[in-house]
Amino acid sequence: MLRISADVFSGRPNPEWIITDEQEARTTLKEIANNRSVVAQSAPGNAGLGFRGLIVEPLSDELAKDYDLPASLYLATASGIAGTKASEIAQRLISSISSAEISPDAASINEGGLPLGEMLQSFLQQKLETTNRVSVPDVEGLPQMMTMETAAEMAAACTYDTSPYNPGFWNNNATILRNNNCYNYASNKRTDTFAQPGRGCGQMYTAINCAEVTRAALCDGLHRRYDCFPDSEAPRYLVALVIAPGPGFNDFHWYRLMREGYWAHKPGSTPVRNVDNSGKVIYNPQTCDRDGYTIFCGYFYTCRSQKIK
């Protein structure tokens, strides 16, 4: 058997499925073994948001030994990273979703997973087909820092805190990198639990949309921007929430404002970065290239007493 994980989400655990057909598993591993250049150790640092690749894991030592392969393989499919053969193998694996066994960890939205089906399969296939295309703007403008737009907002005069950009803390330890996500990073709280909004307060989101993820985050202790925290709740970081609305691909993602004036983020189990999907430094999370995360939900403050789990 083979366990396949699509490295696609940022806030939620990645969807998984299991290929139970022995012949199909062996055929796939043989193809990978004959084309070892398609295998990477992990997602490239510039992979960004969206579909980054597939993780292939033989579920027996016999399978791994027969083809002289490690216990976990990464097929990078993001734009400009993998060749045609990697895309061919990935297409084959994605096509197996409809006949595969669903991992129990991915069976319920209440556990952070997404039920597998035709919509997710279609989404991944579509992204795979377009990963080698590069779109550039006709006129490139300079990103501008976000400003307060109304006198009421200016009058609120809340205080928030910033910290220097320090991606090494999150990126240089394999355990921290793998087990903390965008919500952990935005909150600047390592939990090694792939933290989910609302799980800390016992009322996790029941759907992936602005209203539900916001409700869950507020339950954990966050405040909407301009709903001030006292100094006793420092550090209070300014963060932003966006949503990928589906169908098929439905996820949330968080950003945090850094002392240097730009925003940084951690897409899922991949490295922290301060650039968007176009490789540009993020000065405005509302206008940066967010791929499928098209809905901007708003700005929030985190706090010292935030419950995060």
Topology at a glance:
Blueprint: E1 2-7, E2 16-19, H1 22-33, E3 39-40, E4 53-58, H2 61-66, E5 73-76, H3 84-95, E6 101-102, H4 118-130, H5 151-156, H6 168-171, H7 174-179, H8 182-187, H9 210-220, E7 223-224, E8 238-245, E9 250-257, E10 263-264, E11 295-301
Antiparallel strand pairs: 1-2, 1-4, 2-6, 3-5, 4-5, 7-11, 8-9, 8-11, 9-10
Helix pairs in contact: 3-4
Mean pLDDT over all positions: 82
Radius of gyration: 20 Å
What is the strand content? 15-25%
Low-confidence stretches: 79-83, 104-115, 131-155
Helix content: 10-25%
Give the tally of structural domains. 2
Report the major sheet.
6 strands, antiparallel
Secondary structure tally: strands: 11
Strand order of the largest sheet: 3-5-4-1-2-6
Shape: elongated
Structural class: alpha+beta
- Continuous helix count: 9
Order of helices and strands: EEHEEHEHEHHHHHHEEEEE
CA(first)-CA(last) distance: 32 Å
What does this molecule look like?
Helix 3 packs antiparallel against helix 4. This protein has 2 domains: 2-130, no CATH class; 151-301, no CATH class. The chain starts with a strand and ends in an 8-residue tail after the last strand. Mean pLDDT is 82; it is low at 79-83, 104-115 and 131-155. It is elongated, with a radius of gyration of 20 Å. The chain has a 6-stranded antiparallel sheet. It is of the alpha+beta class and 309 residues long. The protein contains 9 helices and 11 strands. It has helices at 22-33, 61-66, 84-95, 118-130, 151-156, 168-171, 174-179, 182-187, 210-220; strands spanning 2-7, 16-19, 39-40, 53-58, 73-76, 101-102, 223-224, 238-245, 250-257, 263-264, 295-301.
